[in-house]
Specification:
Blueprint: H1 26-35, H2 40-58, E1 61-64, H3 66-74, E2 88-92, H4 120-127, E3 131-136, H5 170-177, E4 184-188, H6 194-200, E5 204-206, E6 225-229, H7 233-243, H8 261-266, E7 273-276, H9 288-303, E8 307-310, H10 320-343, H11 354-364, H12 368-389, E9 394-397, H13 416-425, H14 430-435, E10 439-446, E11 452-459, H15 464-478
Parallel strand pairs: 2-3, 7-8, 7-9
Antiparallel strand pairs: 1-3, 4-6, 5-10, 9-11, 10-11
Length: 491
């Protein structure tokens, strides 16, 4: 049926004035497609039109393929029962392969490498009914918490285009926050979903280690998990139901949930014991406004009936940065080596950004025993931190140390100094990749500076259900789905 809110020019599609529809939850849009109230083609056309108008200003995408997207949208018919039937999305340009699209990880070194198959995550996204319109930007090799690859130029925050949308899923978060997409893919190896979620006022949910399979490229990854960035908790839960579960050949996987995550998100969490802290993992300043947000959120949780108390976590370990840089750097260098192999090019100072080059050089000095020792140290640290958190159902903390930084503040041309500046920007996220726990960044308010505020909730290992249930409870109170940036003028 036709909605009176929408104006059409024949059957061409929605007008720009109808862009509000892409700010609706993805599950709601899928239901509209299912009922025949709107077609997938109309949603996809609108998404493509908004990308055409807004992306020259935001720089969220590396590639958009309208022809392929519209052809896929035309295959989705009324009555399609899939979770996200006909809903437009995009895939981050690092991690899973998307058949027929260049894979660059933001790096010139990859050249024109184009995989001819979909990875598990992409296959599941498509099987759930999503329509892929293109790929979103990441910093080179996904290293930094800002998204400013030399190959493509910076992605920008829709709330203030002079500021970062975060990283490394910065392009994805910018596209979601701007209403170009209602849901979009990202991944998190040191905060890369939670940081851009916090910068852009959307939900960045990192699942437990081994919850989402990296097949067929990786059996498992000690740090990184794929997931979808969303505006609603229900969308996040449904996306996790789509993506979670082992693939043939996986050596390890997270224990299956007692019920679908969508059901967990739909029920009350009960009375939880929640600890909160504003102490960073490194001896670095925290913006007072972030401290205030955590304290306010703790009081909100108390009003909702939870037992909330401050906690002093043993995560301010001076060796964390060195330990994390060795484990993280090893995986970055593996990706860099892969880029050289598929492109047939040598890894030189001129073929990658300075930070990637310096990280590559450093990791070449790490011998096998040092690598094994760093991983073992990380595991010991993780066990001790999880044990300290165990009395609590959930831990509350900031996501960021600083407000979203101006473009150019953390610059890969600074080399390893940029990696150090990353910790100054956000020191609360990477430690949870080391422990493998689930965590989520939730929007809380729009600050006096016009940028979103957020907090981080950390769950017990395999405790996604509790996080989703609690997040859904506070979503009803905060109403962050109404947060949206002013419409930027077309570039």
């Amino acid at each position: 049926m036709e909605s009176e809110r929408w104006t059409r020019a024949g059957r061409i599609g929605f007008t720009v004035a109808d862009a509000d529809i892409l700010f609706r939850p993805a599950l709601e849009l899928a239901a509209m497609v299912r009922s025949g109230e709107v077609s997938s083609r109309e949603l996809t056309e609108l998404s493509l039109r908004r990308a055409e108008q807004l992306d020259p200003k935001l720089g969220a995408f590396t590639i958009i393929d309208a022809e392929r997207a519209l052809a896929a949208a035309d295959d989705v018919k009324p009555g399609d029962g899939r979770s996200f039937a006909g809903v437009p999305t995009a895939i981050k340009d690092i991690g899973p392969f998307l058949a027929g699209y260049p894979y660059t990880a933001g790096a010139e070194l990859f050249g024109d490498f184009t995989p001819d198959f979909d990875s598990n995550v992409v296959r599941r996204v498509k099987q759930a009914g999503c329509i892929v319109i293109g790929k979103t930007k990441t910093p080179e090799m996904g290293i930094l918490p800002v998204t400013e690859p030399v190959r493509y130029g910076p992605a920008r925050n829709p709330y203030d285009t002079d500021r970062t949308p975060g990283g490394s899923s910065g392009g994805a978060a910018a596209a979601l926050a701007a209403g170009i997409l209602p849901i979009t893919h990202g991944n998190d190896g040191g905060g890369s979903l939670r940081i851009p979620g916090a910068c852009c006022g959307v939900i960045g949910f990192k699942p437990s280690r081994n919850r989402v399979s990296g097949a067929p490229l990786l059996a498992e990854h000690p740090l990184t998990q794929d997931m979808m960035l969303t505006r609603s908790v229900a969308d996040a839960a449904a996306a996790l139901d789509v993506l979670s579960g082992p693939e043939l050949g996986d050596a390890n996987w997270a224990p299956p949930p007692a019920e679908p995550f969508a059901l967990a998100a739909a029920r009350e969490p009960g009375r939880l014991r929640i600890g909160y802290t504003v102490k960073p993992t490194l001896d670095l300043p925290v913006d007072p406004s972030h401290v205030e947000q955590v304290n306010d959120f703790a009081r909100l949780l108390e009003r909702l009936g939870h037992d909330v108390e401050p906690v002093d976590l043993p995560w301010d370990n001076s060796e964390i940065m060195l330990m994390f840089s060795k484990v993280f750097g090893g995986w970055i260098s593996t990706l860099t080596r892969f880029a050289g192999i598929v492109s047939g090019r040598d890894i030189t100072e001129d073929s990658v950004e300075r930070l990637t080059w310096e990280m590559w050089q450093l990791t070449q000095k790490i011998d096998v025993l040092d690598w094994i020792s760093s991983n073992a140290t990380a595991n010991v640290f993780a066990r001790s931190l999880i044990a300290a958190m165990d009395p609590y159902d959930v831990i509350l903390s900031p996501v960021l140390n600083l407000r979203p930084v101006p473009i150019g503040t953390i610059d890969s041309t600074q080399g390893m100094a940029a990696f150090g500046k990353s910790a100054e920007f956000t020191s609360f996220t990477a430690v949870i990749n080391v422990t493998g726990q689930p965590a989520v960044s939730l929007p809380t308010a729009i600050g006096d500076d016009g940028l979103p505020h957020s907090v981080q909730l950390i769950g017990r290992p395999a405790g996604e259900a509790t996080l989703l249930s609690l997040a859904a409870q506070v979503q009803e109170v905060i109403g962050w789905q109404g947060f949206r940036p002013a419409e930027p003028a077309p570039a």
